[in-house]
Design a protein that fits this description.
alpha/beta; 12 helices; 41% helix; globular; Aldolase/citrate-lyase_domain; metal ion binding
């Protein structure tokens, strides 16, 4: 992601352009961006994931207990630890969340907005991420970037214009109404991508509960097909947490460009369960040798 870095690591990398390039075969850029999720809100987790080679790390401020100062630390830890090679993305609780301005000011390259059901809500989300120069109402923070040091910008531009151009707005589709309105949502100016919220969509559709790896309900697969068509029509990339959706994954993964493979929490659970099972098996073998 070096080519998408801003002039300062305290400013957002150009995730909007990186997403656009995934939809353009002539760009010569990767068709998929690979990432993971910080759901254990500690800088140890953030700085560890930041150096593993992922294109992005999504910091989940919706479902984890994160306050403003910690959120800023997590976002900047990803940017600084990776030296800009991994872009921090933040999922905020809503467009009205008090955490949103802190995520933007910390240099998040993308913002994921959950539970967006209408184009009007999507337009509000875009507005919150843009300064008035680009038709938004984002507030200018007086003590975030250091004049002449971290507020640098290309000739003829400014750090405000850099942010307006670089920050990607990603709208999460996770209700039947959102699926119905996906075309209109994708058409909203400033929306850079859509994200399938498979878990909440499954609940909203009253699909039976399932465990990870179980066959996917046909209603979810139909919704995926619809989102893929919307993506192609509007040339807007799709995001998904890959471990949350099963079924014939090879048939739909090619149509999703922003792939979140796992999370620190899931990896801890998986690793500890596997290590425990391995040791139980080893001890059983030792007992057999003793007998």
């Amino acid at each position: 992601m070096d080519d998408y870095r801003a002039a300062s690591l305290f400013q957002p990398s150009n995730l909007a352009k990186a997403l656009e390039d995934t939809m353009d075969p002539s760009s010569g850029r990767p068709t998929h961006l690979l990432g993971t999720i910080v759901s254990i809100p500690h800088t140890i987790s953030a700085r560890t994931l930041a150096v593993l080679g992922y294109d992005f790390v999504m910091i989940d401020a919706q479902h984890t207990p994160i306050e403003a100062e910690n959120l800023v630390c997590l976002i900047q830890t990803v940017s600084l630890s990776s030296e800009g090679r991994t872009i921090p993305i933040c999922r905020v609780p809503s467009a009205k969340s008090d955490l949103l301005p802190y995520a933007l000011d910390a240099g998040a390259g993308g913002i994921i907005f959950p539970h967006i059901d209408t184009p009007e809500q999507a337009a509000e989300a875009v507005t919150k991420c843009r300064y008035a120069y680009s038709g938004g109402d984002r507030s200018l923070a007086p003590a975030v970037l250091v004049p002449g040091a971290t507020d640098v910008a290309p000739p003829g531009s400014s750090h405000e214009l850099v942010a307006d151009k670089n920050i990607a707005v990603i709208i999460q589709i996770e209700s039947p109404l959102a699926v119905k309105n996906a075309d209109a949502i994708a058409a909203v100016p400033g929306v850079n991508g859509l994200m399938l919220g498979a878990g909440d969509l499954r609940v909203a559709m009253r699909c039976p509960p399932r465990r990870m790896g179980d066959p996917e309900d046909q209603e979810i697969l139909d919704a995926i097909d619809q989102l893929v068509k919307v993506s192609r029509r509007h040339q807007k990339p799709l995001a998904v947490v890959t471990c949350k959706v099963s079924g014939a994954s090879r048939t739909w993964l090619k149509d999703f460009q922003l792939l979140m493979l796992t999370s620190d929490y899931l990896s801890v659970v998986k690793g500890h369960k596997e290590d425990l099972a391995r040791m139980v098996e080893t001890l059983a073998e030792v007992e057999e040798l003793k007998n």
